[in-house]
């Protein structure tokens, strides 16, 4: 059970339905002026928490995770749309009691024909002092009996942003082969014929051997050839980085609003038609 001493712990907490599914977050707690006990909590639901719905907390429980209410999320989603203006009129509270199948609650929830006490809102855990209202009973041709005023509503545009994945960048390396031409100097040996006359200095060697004979003399020739070796060396490091760019984006949406027109013979306060 949630009492007046735990109201401050309710406001701002996550609200879960009877199956443990999150409904939204608690905004305000409404006290019953007859008993002074918490009767309703407004729960912010929808995108960006723009919608508030009344949820009964008479039999709700306050846990470490938040507030557990004895109704389903779908039930709250379709709850009657009632302005969170600080008070619930008897008619509004009666409508909520009927919708959630809670009976009529206290005497103040009966259809208002005379001066009756309304239900107040508590934002700090203090009960409202209560106030009395008298209203002229009117007849709504499209639904139940209401007071003498018609509420006009309009849609408001609430624009925000959300982050979503739009693409991915991947860094990949692959191997290509290109031809590289280098010039390398190479040397080789060639045969050169040298002649020298017979002199006293070489006459002994010249006369060594037979006078007339056949003979061969061999010389080994050498030449340089290019030698190619390849080695892999690191030349650069590459990484992917992200930068955030902000741009202005226009959003267009059609908004509906209610207007009023009067049928029949009407006069203003000065008696003019």
UniProtKB/TrEMBL annotation:
PRC-barrel domain location: 6-75
Region (Disordered): 117-148, 241-273
GO-annotated cellular components: plasma membrane light-harvesting complex
This protein's name: Conserved domain-containing protein
SUPFAM superfamilies, A to Z: PRC-barrel domain (SSF50346)
Stretches of the chain forming a coiled coil according to its record: none
Annotated ranges, domain DUF2382: 150-262
Bias kind Low complexity: ranges: 117-129
Residue stretches of biased makeup (Basic and acidic residues): 254-273
Signal sequence bounds: none
InterPro entries cross-referenced by the UniProt entry: Bac_photo_RC_H_C, DUF2382, PRC-brl_dom, PRC_barrel-like_sf, Stress_Response_Assoc
Any one GO BP annotation for this protein: photosynthesis, light reaction
Domain of life of the native organism: Bacteria
Pfam family, one: DUF2382
């Amino acid at each position: 059970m949630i009492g007046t001493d735990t109201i401050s712990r309710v406001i701002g907490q996550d609200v879960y339905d009877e199956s443990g599914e999150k409904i939204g977050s608690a905004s305000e707690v409404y006290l019953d002026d007859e008993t002074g006990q918490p009767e309703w909590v407004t729960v912010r639901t929808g995108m960006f928490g723009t919608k508030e719905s009344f949820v009964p907390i008479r039999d709700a429980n306050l846990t470490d995770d938040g507030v557990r209410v004895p109704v389903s999320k779908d039930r709250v989603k379709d709850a009657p749309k009632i302005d969170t203006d600080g008070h619930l009129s008897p008619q509004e509270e009666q409508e909520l009691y009927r919708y959630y199948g809670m009976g009529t609650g206290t005497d103040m929830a009966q259809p208002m024909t005379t001066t009756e006490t309304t239900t107040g809102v508590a934002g700090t855990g203090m009960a409202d002092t209560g106030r009395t209202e008298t209203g002229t009973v009117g007849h709504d041709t499209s639904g139940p009996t209401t007071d003498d005023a018609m509420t006009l509503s309009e849609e408001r545009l609430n624009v925000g942003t959300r982050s979503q994945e739009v693409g991915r960048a991947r860094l990949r390396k692959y191997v290509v082969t290109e031809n590289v031409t280098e010039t390398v100097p190479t040397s080789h040996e060639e045969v050169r014929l040298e002649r020298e006359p017979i002199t006293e200095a070489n006459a002994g060697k010249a006369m060594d051997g037979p006078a007339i004979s056949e003979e061969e003399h061999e010389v080994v020739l050498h030449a340089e050839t290019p030698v190619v070796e390849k080695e892999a060396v690191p030349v650069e490091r590459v990484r992917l980085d992200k930068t955030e760019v902000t741009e202005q984006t226009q959003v267009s949406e059609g908004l509906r609003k209610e207007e009023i027109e009067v049928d029949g013979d009407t006069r203003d306060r000065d008696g003019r038609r």
